Amino acid sequence: MRKKRTRRKSLGQRGPDPSNSTEQFLAAFMATMDTLRPAIETILMETYPPGRRGRPPGYPPFAMLKAIIYRTQTQSLRGLCRELTSNERLLRLTGLPKVPPHQTFSNHVNRLGEDRLRRISELVVQGLRQYWPEFGKVLAIDGTVVKANAMNNLGIRSTSDPDARWGYKEHVKKGEPKWEFGYRFTIATDAEHEIPVTGITTPANKNESPLYPGLLKRGNIMGLPIDVVVTDALYDSKENIAITIAYRARPIIPLNTRSSKTAKLTGTRRGDVILPIRRNSEEWKRYLRMRNASERVNRSLKEDVGLGTLKVRRLTRVACFFWICMIAKQFFALSALRLGKPELVRYAAVWCH
């Protein structure tokens, strides 16, 4: 018997009833994006510099971005076009004069590129800091793997997506590792508010630990008041601990006993004397429990804002889609704060269903 396919409901799916709470939040969500419009448009217009040859943009770049962010509430760009066609109020809120073809949306994302989308995400982070000055004080870092929109028909590679790779995903109940063919997203999350801050996209076979210094550097450049960094044992290394302390932060990184005989026997390491928070102390355990925040955020990114609905191929395009999902999640939180509902900032599903 075939299973009935279910479609994730979107913000505008219930129809254009302004009294509906979902519709009210949709308007607030778009209005929140408008508050950052001058700064965002400065970044968007870099793709259309003065003196550039060729046709001017056929659609307002900022309106295109608003619609693309809304794509996280649909299954694909084609689904976005269908929803814009059937929901006139949504089309009006985005500011588009008419519904563009799905390929126009795709071309716009490719033109923006990963770097510009990351900078837009950083603008939203600064907006969150206006409400939470301590945002980023406790960071939880973890990775998640998403299946590629391709088949591995060349053993470990694919002809349609040469950048995707097999990578470790998780352990099942029997203790056997589970593998996935796709991409890995290593994400730094504010552990207290459970909002993603920044991240890095790689093929699924890449190790997360070497990416740790780059995530801390980004947080430092953004001016985050990083005080504690929580990870799992995968990130355990003398280099990562030393780098964290160099940034005047306190590392909470469990021991990876596979790399040390001393750690296997004693549960400690000789270099633990430099740790600002004593290993296995009550304070250590309290922060270590906050590591679960990163897992909840990663799951929310995949289930609530569409990261699991990966439809693009190649690393550069996958990275762009990752930042679109990050921006959507961050704008959800910022919209809830502007509405005076801080208790709902982490629950994007409240507005999606």
Secondary structure layout plus pairing:
Elements: H1 21-35, H2 37-44, H3 61-70, H4 77-86, H5 88-94, H6 102-131, E1 138-147, E2 165-171, E3 177-190, E4 195-203, H7 212-221, E5 228-230, H8 238-246, E6 250-252, H9 261-266, H10 282-288, H11 292-303, H12 315-338, H13 349-352
Parallel strand pairs: 1-5, 5-6
Antiparallel strand pairs: 1-3, 2-3, 3-4
Helix pairs in contact: 1-12, 2-6, 4-5, 4-6, 6-12
Summarize this structure as a short list of keywords or feature phrases.
353 residues, alpha/beta, Nucleotidyltransferase, domain 5, 6-stranded mixed sheet, disordered N terminus
Q: How would you sum up the major sheet? A: 6 strands, mixed
Query: Roughly how much helix do the residues carry, as a percent range?
Result: 40-55%
**What coarse outline follows from CA principal-axis ratios?**
globular
Q: How many structural domains are formed by the residues?
A: 2
Radius of gyration: 21 Å
Mean pLDDT: 85
Structural class: alpha/beta
Q: How would you spell out the order of helices and strands? A: HHHHHHEEEEHEHEHHHHH
CATH class of the largest domain: Alpha Beta
CATH architecture of the largest domain: 2-Layer Sandwich
**Cα distance spanning the termini:** 27 Å
- Please give the number of β-strands: 6
Q: Which regions are unreliable across 5 or more consecutive residues at pLDDT < 50?
A: 1-19
Fraction of residues in β-strands: 5-15%
